Amino acid sequence: MKWSEVRQNFPNQIVLVEAVESSSENSLRTIQEMAVINDFRDNLEASGI
After folding, report:
1. Of 3, 9, 13, 28, which is most buried with the most CB atoms under 10 A?
2. Which domain holds residue 39?
3. Measuring CA to CA, which residue among 47, 26, 46, 27 is closest to residue 38?
4. Grouped pLDDT means (10 residues each) for the chain, 49 residues
5. Residue 35 CA to its chain's centroid (Å)
6. Residue 22 CB partners (closer than 8 Å, separation 6+)
7. pTM of the model
8. Rounded to an integer, what distance in angstroms lies between the CA atom of residue 39 and that of residue 18?
9. Domain count of the chain?
10. 28: number of CA atoms within 13 Å, CB side?
């Protein structure tokens, strides 16, 4: 899934993603494809409090 797809499918939510495909260049890591592991409605839910 691309970042634009994550944003469209999980609007106004916090998401935990895993990089499926990525690359590094000049110490900069770029994620081309990702998988959503979990989604949260707000900061409290994401922090587990």
Report:
1. 13
2. 3-47
3. 46
4. 97 96 96 97 89
5. 7
6. 29, 30, 31, 32, 33
7. 0.81
8. 12
9. 1
10. 4
